Amino acid sequence: MAATSLQNYTLVITGAPYSSQAPQTALLFARAAIAAGHTLDRVFLYGDGVHLASSLSAPPSDETHWAKEWARFLKDNAVPGVACIASALRRGLVNESEKKRYELPASNLLEPFIIAGLGEWVEGTMASSRVIYFHAGG
């Protein structure tokens, strides 16, 4: 049996939790990749995918809390989770510095996610052997 080479992935999630399967499918992939010995360079949230980084989601108790599941996974595996700043601001997702900058009443970014620009996506595409997109679908 031939040995498989280990990969370093960047995952890009563009679909929101509860309105698409993108975050759920990405998390299943991420867990399987780590279990197989692969590494994740980062998880980049873009478009509606930034809703995954909101600390204000509160699904019913009998549903999976995808934001908390992702936050736990990222912390447990020391994987950076990055929300695109332009997408985040358009959708009302802000960290403490953006809260102050725009004089908003509160911040709502779930740790360990950070807000950053598209440069993070570019770095991920350059640093990773594979970039996999998880879209909301058509």
Keywords:
5 helices, 138 residues, alpha/beta, globular, single chain, Hypothetical Protein Ychn, Chain: A, five-stranded parallel sheet
Explain what you see:
The chain starts with 7 loop residues before the first strand and ends with a strand. It is built from five helices and five strands; from the N terminus they run E-H-E-H-E-H-H-E-H-E. With 138 residues, the protein is α/β, with parallel strands linked by helices. It is 34% helix and 18% strand. It has one domain: Hypothetical Protein Ychn, Chain: A, CATH 3.40.1260. Strand 2, helix 2 and strand 3 form a beta-alpha-beta unit. The chain has a five-stranded parallel β-sheet with strand order 4-3-2-1-5, with helices on both faces. The model has no long low-confidence stretch (mean pLDDT 94). Helix 1 packs parallel to helix 2.
Strand-helix topology:
Blueprint (H helix, E strand, L loop, with lengths): L7 E6 L8 H14 L3 E7 L20 H12 L3 E4 H6 L5 H6 L12 E3 L2 H9 L2 E5 L4
Parallel strand pairs: 1-2, 1-5, 2-3, 3-4
Helix pairs in contact: 1-2
Summed over residues and divided by their number, the pLDDT gives a mean of: 94
CATH class: Alpha Beta
The description of the largest β-sheet is: 5 strands, parallel
Provide the succession of SSEs. EHEHEHHEHE
> What portion of residues belong to β-strands?
15-25%
- As a percent range, the share of helical residues equals 25-40%
CATH topology: Hypothetical Protein Ychn, Chain: A
State Rg: 15 Å
As for the number of domains, it is: 1
Structural class: alpha/beta
CATH architecture: 3-Layer(aba) Sandwich
Q: Choose one word for the global shape.
A: globular
Q: Strand sequence of the main sheet, in spatial order? A: 4-3-2-1-5
The rounded distance between the terminal residues' Cα atoms is 39 Å
Discrete helix count = 5
The number of E-state strands comes to 5
Stretches where pLDDT is under 50 for at least 5 consecutive residues are: none
